[in-house]
Amino acid sequence: GKLSFGLLAALWAASNGMGAISDTLNTAYNVKESRRWWRVRLMSVCLTVALAILILAALAIVLVGGTIGEALATRFGLGSLFTTIWSVIQWPIALIFVLTTFNLIYNFAPSISPAARRWMTPGAFVGVGLWLIVSFGFRVYLGFFDSYSVTYGSLGAVIVLMLWFYLSGVAILVGGEVNCEYGYKQVHKARSKK
Fold first, then answer.
1. At residue 20, what are phi and psi to the nearest 5 degrees?
2. Widest CA span of the chain, in angstroms?
3. Distance in angstroms (rounded) separating the CA atoms of residues 162 and 164
4. Taking each helix axis from N to C terminus, what angle separates 79-108 and 155-193, rounded to the nearest 10 degrees?
5. Is 33 in a helix, a strand, or coil?
6. CA-CA-CA-CA torsion for 89, 49, 120, 94, nearest 10 degrees?
7. Rounded Cα gap, residues 124 and 102, in angstroms
8. Would you say the pTM of this structure is higher than 0.70?
9. What distance in Å separates the CA atoms of residue 161 and residue 144, rounded to the nearest whole number?
10. 128 touches 146 (CB < 8 A)
11. What is residue 116's DSSP assignment?
12. Average pLDDT per run of 10 along the chain, which is 194 residues long?
């Protein structure tokens, strides 16, 4: 019972973060929230679950991808060639999961019409690229300045995680701004041709 309650509370809290991303992307896309509050909350919960699954799958492929490839090769008798190919294609597969995550955010978090939704937007590529750069840069930074646990004790890990969430949010917002500008230019070109 306590575990179920803890998971539901964590899901509710995480969906609050997705609601904040939704509000921020509404501002980036220059739209007002037109959905009912319960639809926004339901969308936030559904997006949180979907993103958690996609991110965990991408992390599993990156962290234990070699073990997965070896297990598949052993199970189906594919040999060492498959293991070599798998070690190369595991990275694009993980990148596809992350791109899908960003596209889900850009298509369902803001209050845009279904006709305005596009898959594989330029903002997703910019957002993912910026997120990878920021994450790598933050990792390098932590390698040189790793005294958070000395200064703050056990709260140091929470501070580092929250700072990484903040930087990830900035990457998502920049990608949303790119989508807004790109979409605006597309609409402007279509109107000028008429």
1. -65, -40
2. 64
3. 5
4. 70
5. coil
6. -10
7. 6
8. yes
9. 17
10. no
11. G
12. 75 83 85 86 88 87 83 82 85 90 88 75 90 89 76 78 86 89 56 47
